[in-house]
Amino acid sequence: MSLNKMVCLVDGEHYLPVTKSAIDTLNNLEHIDVVAVIFIGGTEKLKTDNADLYSEMMGLPVHFGENKSEIPYNLITEIIRKYHADSVMDLSDEPVLDYTKRFNIASRILAEGIPYEGPDFKFEPITQYEVCEKPCLKILGTGKRIGKTAVSGYLSRLIDKLGYEPCVVAMGRGGPEEPEVVHGDTFEITPEFLIEQSEKGVHAASDHWEDALMSRILTIGCRRCGGGMAGEVFLTNMKKGAQIANSVENKFVIFEGSGAAIPPIKTNKNIVLIGANQPLMNIKNFFGPFRINLADLIILTMCEEPMASHDKIKEIENFISEINPNSKIISTVFRPKPLGDIKGKKVLFATTAPSSVKDVLVSYLEKEYSCEVVATTPYLSNRPLLQKDIQKNINNVDVMLTELKAAAVDVATKDSLDAGLEVIYCDNIPLPISSNYPNLSESIIEIVDGAIDDFHQN
Prior knowledge:
Layout: E1 4-10, H1 16-27, E2 32-39, H2 51-58, E3 62-64, H3 73-82, E4 87-90, H4 99-111, E5 116-118, E6 121-123, E7 136-141, H5 148-161, E8 166-172, E9 180-183, H6 191-199, H7 207-215, E10 218-225, E11 235-236, H8 238-247, E12 252-256, E13 269-275, H9 280-284, H10 288-293, E14 297-301, H11 310-323, E15 328-338, E16 346-350, H12 358-369, E17 372-377, H13 383-393, E18 399-402, H14 408-418, E19 422-432, H15 440-457
Parallel strand pairs: 1-2, 1-4, 2-3, 4-5, 7-12, 7-13, 8-10, 8-12, 13-14, 14-15, 16-17, 16-18, 18-19
Antiparallel strand pairs: 5-6, 9-10, 10-11, 15-19
């Protein structure tokens, strides 16, 4: 049995013999070897800050941070790497560590790929299978409905036109039992075709169908169930999806996350999406910082009133810059882009966007595409209410314009076709909120090229 090389976090609020007794208890376990101790704060029962003296008393290397009044986050990372630690045990307590500080520590430790545990908790690092045999990146997010699939589609179209030959492997809550290949690059995906798939029991509004429809590339759909606080999933067949991606002719692979769940595939680069509409607490605390630190490029979405004020956007940007200064940040909004011609037509627009931005989206559609949006429905995720809105407006419109989300196929498409309406699907395009930000397309290409370089170097 190989020994678990463990680093222990302790504080000066415990009497030293008590702390030593706890560490001795750990060291007496056959599978554990405590290799170092880190004092992370507290002075009540600390007679001196002489590390050499404490090392002699504890019989182990003892380390103090430079500033005794601050949690030595960087030191924890350094000691883990110095001793090639396999885990970290927290033997400290309130008031030295509160919940926020413990999550900050957890984010640092999980980033090193090892567990962080205490008397009644244990956080495991997320799974990252090293199975992809091509240059690749993943798109992950800090929550649901913040635009991962829209950005994936934008990225796919962009690099496909430039000859990178991408494919997308997406996982979702409604994905197939076995990974499903959709050849969006070889045939037209029509509303009628999606209805046929839906009637066969396929969730034809899954993210990989949306990617295939919007980007006209090959996609591979996977499923997942459950999502842990740091992004781990309980069940997914994405590893098998990645192996299928190895066998197709496409030369670059995009792995698309689901909600706040992170694709369990090791990639060369990462793009992280953060919804500016999300509570600041969730972005700045818990495992928000962990996800932010995974990023090579950060796209902040939903950056407009009333979802997010100018001050909130700037606060998020400043926070990101503090904890991940090496990542570019681009703040964006989404705008609808119909895949068909709606000029001069009366439109019923079905979207998952919040009602608070309805007027902005309607104005954009009418101005950019010379149509008349007679009605909107925000109920793609609520089948009964969606059906009511369709029935209410059937006689007033020519076209159902819908995003490919949730009930877009089995309700929005089917009911509209049955009523004799034309169905046109709608993409969402990310647009930077000002010219002061880095160019979005150029930044994405830079990340893709960086992934390719990293793949060939390793």
